């Protein structure tokens, strides 16, 4: 089979299968011939190695179903904007929860520093012996770290959700316009294994420290106040004992 | 080897080659047919399918002494698909290898 035979049979077969852009496809095979001829192969050899034109043509996707789902595009867009609106509100609420957690973690950290340092600014902290305060302060510090680590997980989760929603948004629009869509899940946005290990370690250590310091602090408070309900002894709630 | 089975793997090979650098069609066809036993022409339908799936894009580049060449380059979506499918394929291949080697040990 000569180059001419091959290309005519290929384009005839492609036309028959209603494959779009026949010229573009045939040109690619023409270039293949040009490269191989320059390397010293004969037209027959090249055609034989390429394979049967009919079989190659069968591997191209058929066109035909071109004008589809165009009318639905407006409704798709409208529906998508409504979904966007509610998803946006939900996202803001989730984000506010994250800000709340961050503020709580910060409060714990500040309170623990004040307790350990023994500074009771404007008598905001309940009064107690320094040792009790220091142990409870350590518990609070561990709690602050624990919440901060939880916040990292939470924000990573929020970021992933936002990205996959964005992907869903773009894919829906692309599908409505008949354009190619991307894979559904935006991958590769997870924490790196090293960061993940470190974070898990932090959570474990801070959890143990928090539990231990809280129990020890409670016991030390009971002992130094001489009563189980030490908060009554120290008058934490403002009434006389 | 079964032709239908090979086709899915060929897509992965094309993505792998293009994730390293941009190539023109003939280069890709030569790269694959030099390593895997396939008809030279099979690569072009694969390139076209990957392009219409949005995993590849093309651009023309002038060459000295010849018509402009059509270069293929991988898109962000193609890279993402490649990373995912590559991991899945390697895990699958390792499992198959383990099973087949167990078979070998039984006979020996």
Task: Produce a short descriptive summary.
The complex is a heterodimer of chains A (241) and B (108). Chain A is mostly helical. Chain A has two domains: 3-58, no CATH class; 73-233, no CATH class.
Explain the overall architecture:
The complex is a heterodimer of chains A (241) and B (108). Chain A has 241 residues and is mainly alpha-helical. Chain A has eight helices and no strands. Chain A has helices spanning 3-16, 22-38, 43-50, 53-58, 73-117, 130-176, 193-225, 230-233. In chain A, α1 packs antiparallel against α2 and α6 (130-176) runs antiparallel to α7 (193-225). The longest helix of chain A has 47 residues, at 130-176. Chain A is elongated and about 105 Å long. With 108 residues, chain B is of the alpha+beta class. Chain B has a single domain (3-107), classed as Orthogonal Bundle (Arc Repressor Mutant, subunit A). Chain B is built from four helices and three strands. Chain B has helices at 3-20, 25-35, 43-52, 76-107, and strands at residues 23-24, 56-61, 69-74. Chain B has a three-stranded antiparallel β-sheet with strand order 1-3-2. In chain B, α1 (3-20) crosses α4. The longest helix of chain B has 32 residues, at 76-107. Chain B is elongated, with a radius of gyration of 17 Å. At the A-B interface, α2 and α3 of A face α2, α3 and α4 of B.
- How many angstroms does the end-to-end distance of chain B come to? 25 Å
Strand content of chain B: 5-15%
User: What count of structural domains of chain A?
Assistant: 2
Total beta-strand segments of chain A: 0
What is Rg of chain B?
17 Å
Q: Tally the helices of chain B: what do you get? A: 4
Q: Give the topology string of chain A: H per helix, E per strand.
A: HHHHHHHH
Oligomer kind: heterodimer
Given helix and strand content, the structural type of chain A is mainly alpha
Beta-strand share of residues of chain A:
under 5%
Number of distinct beta strands of chain B = 3
Query: Within the largest sheet of chain B, what's the order of strands?
Result: 1-3-2
CATH topology of chain B: Arc Repressor Mutant, subunit A
> What is the mean predicted local confidence, pLDDT of chain B?
86
Number of helices of chain A: 8
Shape of chain A: elongated
**Low-confidence segments of chain B:** none
Largest interface: A-B, 24 and 26 residues
Helical content of chain B (DSSP H or I, runs of 4+):
55-70%
How much helix is in the residues of chain A?
over 70%
